[in-house]
């Protein structure tokens, strides 16, 4: 029922909303829950497992019952959803469902640093922030409040629940985030804050935690009926939202705090009876209110509470009719974030309070177990003064507002009132009862962590804010100990539910992962290339002509490179300049073969192993000068090779004068491949003598292309054909490509992609590191013993002498020719012997690493790693493929131009 | 037409992002003390900075501290002398392009460094990440004006990201 006056709602702005298909009206400033109560709705969806009627229980993030789906967003708490016009909500029984639709909202991240971060914008937090900012330190105040009441700029707050804090501090470095929740606290005072659709990453030199406390319930029989609420929540509904949740109230308490609720209820016109657990209740209730020393033991009612059963120590038990039961079992400091920061907590007889900090932080106010307002404000101010001095912007202790001091009657905490344990609810969201806890203890569990997992208490979206402490009380009672002896369960981030979309931010769609492109990329797109992802690179895969499928296009591209001329964008190759007087010595130690004596102007293919002797990377290296080499790596291995070089240089051989600079994007590389490539290069680079004598294989020349572009052209072949690699500055990549394409036109120059490159190299038996190797393959396994120097030392050399790496029957890279030349072996297919059994266990002989259709061979072929393969040439193996079998003959891995006659054109 | 007209920068046809194309850049890696460093400083007319993440102005060029033994010398477009002038240097002019950004707020959507004027200001640089790509971040003016030096292959991604972040 809405009260005629009061509250912080805007009565001039009525808002219409829909709940479970029915239209209602509330006001701006309402939560969904307060608007429901204003319309007389206390009941929400029934409980998850037992289908018991449930109602709104709290007025904040601790809400276990009132879960709603709002639009596409499941499992929101009605107590934290701000009412807006046209809001459509549906009550949920514990479980929501994510919509399959893509998230439409824009989510964002902000990274910021501050001297002092204050978490919590209650009186203590506001005092701390105000004090700390006065000296000029950078301060951020994070407060829950309600969304949208904050300044849209996200900066200094000028109105709303922070009460004008911004006006006096506008000139300082204070930033206030309202409607924001800190939910994760990590090392180095790194705190994550959810603020509307932005995830703030805040790193602070000092943190002041003023996170407040959560009121705890009392566990009695049938303590879950609609109309049973936390006492503080009842007061909040009356004072903040001008909503009276019931006219006929029983207030059951163990402490003084509920008397503020009693006063609010009386002022709002409700009839109130107080049940106080203390033998001599304090004289705090307004005149005319009956105060009974005793406890509520049970309730009646179906869809709403109708009466409470009360036991008293001295007089007869009572039955009091009511439509509202406000409960206060004491207050537990909100130590979630402090505990996440690795701060320790201790039991003070009533609650767990912060003990020792593990980071540069302090806890103040109710969060520190300091419930007296004046003491809390002093604590907050002192913490701020200390923090401000520590960060170099000292302030004096501020004057404290006058707060009336009063005498406090000590609490008499009660966790559990005798009754039927099957209907005494410990965790309302998980529907877990005292009987469940006792069952867990009866099964031998002693640790609260075990009981939590057995009963699921505290694992709901409310993170057990109203169930963890009662559960500890019940466990302690069952074990005959105290909650302090048991200790708490672990607090983990996120302390409030946050959406995946918030965590993803703008790392979605095309921004999910960087896409790397070469300077020639736009040409590939214009000319219809299909692309392949290689690491983060987009590489042209093949260039289908109209009507061509992949197979046809690749066969055409292969034929062009073997009989005419093809060209490929090889700019993605990793490139590293290795500079210094010891560059040659360094490369000698890294590669299995020698580079120290490579002549300036020459190039050499090299292979690298890890310390275990397994192949790590390969590529061609050119010697540019006595003290300078140009190393190329595989496309995917570039960053790893650079790191590998740096690691050995910095940690093992600091005495070598050598440095490394990545130049991958400095150079665009264009491969020009095929018998007609010499003619094309001759046209493109007219200054160059391209004859085999003047420009032999594995050399390079610096020259200028006919259009003036400086170029470094090398004779390198990854196909066995006569081939060139034209290296130009990345700025000129596109122009050089277009020039070569233009000059090659009379020769039918054919752009080709990675698939054709793979086929051409496989026909020659050239392995690709990472496709034909997998970190368990040595150079000898690849049949490349010729590349392993016997004279010099290199990384991995000793491992190659281990008995296992030296044994002759390891898996070898061999060729496979399917018996039926039309059948294509799938890559990854396992090969077995012809006479292998057809039921497990089936001995595996190895697997197919590369498999293609070859235009040159006019048949299919494959490469495979086969046990003892080099000694099994001519043997037929089988690939069992479920519904079919492919037989293939083991061959040498070189299928085409075994003599190497085509290399020089 | 000169050969320079054939150059194409990574963001040449990207709208809405301020690219400063074709700056001349060389990477220098030498021990911070010793003959080589002294010779290079003399040749450039300014000391190789030793304060981490600081930038020294040397005539029309700037020297950025990248590491204890690594510097990036940045000259204007057309600085033909720079690439060949230091024997130890590696020409990296085309390795990165440069994007100018005039908003600290925009960078704070994806850069984890503290960019508050008390912590970062004109004459500072840092090797860091913006969103998911590496950049050299260099503040050239307190207005503020920042330069993001990004690898050419990542430039389109970064431009996409900046355009998206600028909408928020």
List the helices and strands and how they pair.
The complex is a heterodimer of chains A (905) and B (168).
Chain A: E1 10-19, E2 22-28, H1 32-38, E3 43-44, E4 54-55, E5 67-70, E6 73-77, E7 88-91, E8 108-119, H2 123-133, E9 139-142, H3 165-169, E10 174-177, E11 180-186, E12 190-195, E13 198-209, E14 213-215, E15 228-230, H4 231-239, E16 248-253, H5 258-267, E17 271-276, E18 290-301, E19 305-312, E20 318-321, E21 324-328, E22 331-333, H6 336-340, E23 345-347, E24 352-354, E25 361-363, H7 373-390, E26 425-427, E27 432-433, H8 434-442, H9 448-455, H10 468-479, H11 483-486, H12 500-504, H13 521-526, E28 530-534, E29 537-542, H14 550-563, E30 566-569, E31 574-579, H15 583-590, E32 603-609, E33 615-625, E34 628-633, H16 638-652, E35 659-662, E36 667-673, H17 677-684, E37 700-704, E38 710-714, E39 723-729, H18 733-744, E40 750-751, H19 754-763, H20 803-806, E41 811-818, E42 830-833, E43 846-854, E44 859-867, E45 876-881, E46 884-891
Parallel strand pairs in A: 1-7, 8-9, 8-13, 9-10, 13-25, 15-21, 16-17, 16-21, 17-18, 30-40
Antiparallel strand pairs in A: 1-2, 3-4, 5-6, 5-7, 11-12, 12-13, 14-22, 18-19, 19-20, 23-24, 26-27, 28-29, 30-36, 31-34, 31-35, 32-33, 33-34, 36-39, 37-38, 38-39, 41-44, 41-46, 42-43, 42-45, 43-44, 45-46
Helix pairs in contact in A: 2-7, 4-5, 8-9, 8-10, 14-19, 17-18
Chain B: E1 18-20, E2 24-29, H1 35-44, E3 55-58, E4 61-67, E5 70-75, H2 82-85, E6 90-91, E7 96-101, H3 104-107, E8 124-130, E9 133-141, E10 145-151, H4 155-166
């Amino acid at each position: 029922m809405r009260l005629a006056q009061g509250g912080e709602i805007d009565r001039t702005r009525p808002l219409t909303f829909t709940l479970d298909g029915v239209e209602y009206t509330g006001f701006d400033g309402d939560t969904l829950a307060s608007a429901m109560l204003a319309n007389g709705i206390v009941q929400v969806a029934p409980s998850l497992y037992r289908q018991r009627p449930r109602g709104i229980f709290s007025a904040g993030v601790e809400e276990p019952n009132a879960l709603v789906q709002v639009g596409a967003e499941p499992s929101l708490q009605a107590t934290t959803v701000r009412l807006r016009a046209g809001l459509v909500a549906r009550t949920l029984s514990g479980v929501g469902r994510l919509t399959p639709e893509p998230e439409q909202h824009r989510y964002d991240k902000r990274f910021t640093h501050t001297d002092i971060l204050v978490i919590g914008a209650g009186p203590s937090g506001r005092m701390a922030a105000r004090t700390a900012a006065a000296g000029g330190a950078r301060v951020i105040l994070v407060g829950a409040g309600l969304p949208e009441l904050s300044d849209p700029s996200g900066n200094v707050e000028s109105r709303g629940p922070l009460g004008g804090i911004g006006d006096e501090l506008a000139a300082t470095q204070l930033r206030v985030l309202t409607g924001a929740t800190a939910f994760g606290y990590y090392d180095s005072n790194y705190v994550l804050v959810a603020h509307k659709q932005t995830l703030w990453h805040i790193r602070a030199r000092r943190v002041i935690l003023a996170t407040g406390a959560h009121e705890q319930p009392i566990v009695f029989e049938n303590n879950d009926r609609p109309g049973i609420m936390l006492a503080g929540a009842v007061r909040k509904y009356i004072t903040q939202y001008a909503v009276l949740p019931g006219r006929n109230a029983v207030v059951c308490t163990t402490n003084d705090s509920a008397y503020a609720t009693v006063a609010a209820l009386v002022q709002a016109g409700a009839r109130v009876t107080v049940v106080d657990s203390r033998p001599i209740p304090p004289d705090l209730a307004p005149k005319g209110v009956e105060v009974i020393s005793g406890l509520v033991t049970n309730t009646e009612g179906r869809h709403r509470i109708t009466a409470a059963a009360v036991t008293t120590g001295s007089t007869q038990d009572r039955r009091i009719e009511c439509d509202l039961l406000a409960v206060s079992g004491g207050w537990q400091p909100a130590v979630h974030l402090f505990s996440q920061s690795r701060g320790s907590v201790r039991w003070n007889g009533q609650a767990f309070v912060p003990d020792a900090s593990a980071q540069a932080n302090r806890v103040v106010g109710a969060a520190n177990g300091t419930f007296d307002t004046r003491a809390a404000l002093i604590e907050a101010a002192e913490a701020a003064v200390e923090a401000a001095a520590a960060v170099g912007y000292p302030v004096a202790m501020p004057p404290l507002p006058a707060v009336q001091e009063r005498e406090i009657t000590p609490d008499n905490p009660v966790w559990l009132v005798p009754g039927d344990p099957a209907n005494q609810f410990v965790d309302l969201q998980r529907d877990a009862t005292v009987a469940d806890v006792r069952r867990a203890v009866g099964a031998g569990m002693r640790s609260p962590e075990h009981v939590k997992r057995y009963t699921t208490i505290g694992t709901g979206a409310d993170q057990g804010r109203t169930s963890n402490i009662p559960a500890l009380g019940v466990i302690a009672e069952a074990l005959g100990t105290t909650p302090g002896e048991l200790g708490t369960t672990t607090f983990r981030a996120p302390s409030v539910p946050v959406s995946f979309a918030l965590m993803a931010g703008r790392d979605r769609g095309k921004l999910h992962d960087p896409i790397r492109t070469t300077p020639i990329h736009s040409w590939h797109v214009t000319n219809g290339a299909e692309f392949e992802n290689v690491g983060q690179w987009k590489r042209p895969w093949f260039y289908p002509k109209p009507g061509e499928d992949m197979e046809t296009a690749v066969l055409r591209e292969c034929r062009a490179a073997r009989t005419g001329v093809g060209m490929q964008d090889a700019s993605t190759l990793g490139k590293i300049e290795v500079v210094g007087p010891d560059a040659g010595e360094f490369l000698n130690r890294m590669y299995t073969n020698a580079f120290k004596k490579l002549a300036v102007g020459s190039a050499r293919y090299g292979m690298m192993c890890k310390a275990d002797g397994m192949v790590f990377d390969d590529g061609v290296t050119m010697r540019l000068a006595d003290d300078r080499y140009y190393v190329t790596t595989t496309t995917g291995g570039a960053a790893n090779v650079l790191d590998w070089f740096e690691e050995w240089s910095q940690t093992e051989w600091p005495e070598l004068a050598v440095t490394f600079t990545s130049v991958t994007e400095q150079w665009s590389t264009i491969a020009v491949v095929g018998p007609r490539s010499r003619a094309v290069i001759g046209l493109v680079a007219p200054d160059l003598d391209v004859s085999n004598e003047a420009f032999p294989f594995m050399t390079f020349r610096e020259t200028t292309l006919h259009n003036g572009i400086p170029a470094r052209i090398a004779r390198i072949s990854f196909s066995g054909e006569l081939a060139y690699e034209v290296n130009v500055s990345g700025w000129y990549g596109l122009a050089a490509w277009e020039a070569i394409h233009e000059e090659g036109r009379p020769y039918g120059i054919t752009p080709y992609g990675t698939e054709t490159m793979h086929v051409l190299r496989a026909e020659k038996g050239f392995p690709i590191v990472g496709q034909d190797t997998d970190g368990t393959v040595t150079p000898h396994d690849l049949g490349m013993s010729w590349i392993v120097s016997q004279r010099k030392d290199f990384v991995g050399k000793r491992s190659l002498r281990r008995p296992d790496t030296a044994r002759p029957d390891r898996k070898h890279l061999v060729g496979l020719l399917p018996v039926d030349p039309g059948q294509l072996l799938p890559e990854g297919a396992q090969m077995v012997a012809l006479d292998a059994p057809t039921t497990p266990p089936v001995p595996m002989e190895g697997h197919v690493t590369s498999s293609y259709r070859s235009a040159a061979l006019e048949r299919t072929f494959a490469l495979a790693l086969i046990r003892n393969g080099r000694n099994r040439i001519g043997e037929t193996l089988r690939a069992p493929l479920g519904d079919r079998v492919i037989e293939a003959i083991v061959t040498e891995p070189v299928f085409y131009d075994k003599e190497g006659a085509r290399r020089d054109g | 037409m000169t050969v320079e007209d054939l150059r194409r920068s990574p963001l040449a046809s990207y709208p809405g992002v301020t690219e400063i194309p074709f700056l001349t850049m060389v990477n220098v890696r030498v021990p911070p003390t010793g003959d080589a460093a002294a010779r290079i400083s003399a040749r450039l007319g300014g000391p190789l900075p030793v304060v981490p993440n600081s930038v020294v102005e040397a005539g029309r060029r700037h020297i950025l501290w990248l590491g204890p033994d690594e510097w990036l010398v940045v000259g204007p477009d057309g600085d033909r002398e720079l690439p060949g002038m230091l024997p130890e240097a590696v020409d990296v002019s085309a390795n990165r392009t440069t994007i100018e950004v005039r908003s600290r707020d925009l960078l704070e959507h994806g850069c984890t460094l503290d960019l508050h004027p008390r912590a970062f200001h004109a004459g500072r640089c840092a090797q860091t990440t913006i969103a998911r790509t590496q950049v050299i971040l260099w503040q050239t003016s307190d207005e503020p004006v920042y330069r993001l030096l990004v690898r050419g292959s990542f430039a389109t991604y970064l431009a996409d990201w900046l355009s998206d972040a600028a909408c928020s």
